[in-house]
Amino acid sequence: MFFKIKLQETCSKWLRKEREVNNSMRFLITSSSGIFSPAVGSIVEVLNHFGEVFVVCPHKESSLAGYTVTLHKPLKVTELTAFGAEIKSWVVNGTSVDCVKIGIEKLIKKKVDFIVSGIHIGSPSGRDLAYCGDIAAAMEGTFFQIPSLALSIDGIAENEVNFSSFKKYFNELIEVFLAHKHPKGVCFHIHFPTLTEKNCQGVKVVDFDFTFSRYKYVTIHDDHQDFYVLQQKESERKDKETRENNSTRASYITVTPLENLISQRKHIRKLERWFKDK
After folding, report:
1. What global pTM score does this model have?
2. What angle do CA 146, 147, 149 make, to 5 degrees?
């Protein structure tokens, strides 16, 4: 408890100093759930205490769009007053990645300091992480060298989520992330369990297990042709590590660093040696 209080005092002092120097932080929020999702409103409510907020979201739900951009049709942007006149917000007929890119390059006329993407409803696991539009949007932010977070929370539908508890915990977490310098090429995925005062035991840093996928193709037999549909299945992995990770994610807010392609530069020298004599 003492450590937590001292951390909050340090973060608060840093934030006051930062605001005096830079006037305010500028946040870009996007969500594959769409601009009218209560998840977006919850993030706006928290970040509005830390600086200037801008919201750019897809015009429809696209949570499993993955890392997709729109190339073969023009993007239509509509400005809204979804969160009042003081918070500029837009909807785009594209993906969350489109929203981050066009928000930074065209819509927001000031330098964006921080990006928050989410909240994805459900728990991205294993290779399914690559399908999550909110994580892809945060990853896009790292290409602009902007600190970025992707948020997810346990649940099947938004009406199951305790957004009041989420706002309380996210407010504490964002102070920590604002108080530290983020490594280049890295965004952070934060997953919240089903939040109550009793079952949230704290914060843990975890890794992803990319060796499995919850979504697998199943065959639908037709008279003339077979069709294949992705369906969610429980993981067949029963090893100790997976059981421990599942237990952790059910009881703790978890934080995972995710590297983008820029970070792969560290492998270039090794790869060059492969072809040295060719």
Report:
1. 0.83
2. 125
